[in-house]
Amino acid sequence: MKPEHAAALTIDRFESGAIDPAVFDHEAHIYVAWLYVQRFGADAAIGRFDAALRSLTAKLGVPQKYDAIVTWLFLKLIAARARSDEDWPAFRARNADLVDEFPRSQVA
Question: 52-75 burial string, b = 16+ CB within 10 Å, else e?
Fold first, then answer.
């Protein structure tokens, strides 16, 4: 994910479906999920992110790319690893395995 794309990836834009699918790669998924965890906490983040992702994949005409198990697993992992005193670059640096090692063919 390019740094300039991060500015366009907000919770409001995600929930409204105003996300450019060309820049919404796996890292962008993780980034937006991290935003949810930071703002809402683990339990609320899971429900809200899940609903928004389902809506987004339907709006983009690719509902088959949504996977509840993968979505919930990543939200749980992000929540377990998140620290309230760190920003995205610090979280990403500590958790590169969540971003870099996931098979790209599995990502919506």
Answer: bbebbbeeeeeeeebeeeebeebb
* pLDDT tens digit sequence for 51-106: 999 999 999 999 999 999 999 999 999 999 999 899 999 999 999 999 886 554 44
The pTM is what?
Answer: 0.88
The ranges assigned to domains in the chain are 3-106
User: Given the structure tokens 């990543």, which residue do they identify?
Assistant: 74
Residue type at 105 in one-letter notation: S
Specify the 3-state DSSP secondary structure of 79: helix
Q: Which of 52, 63, 68 is nearest to 19 (CA)?
A: 52
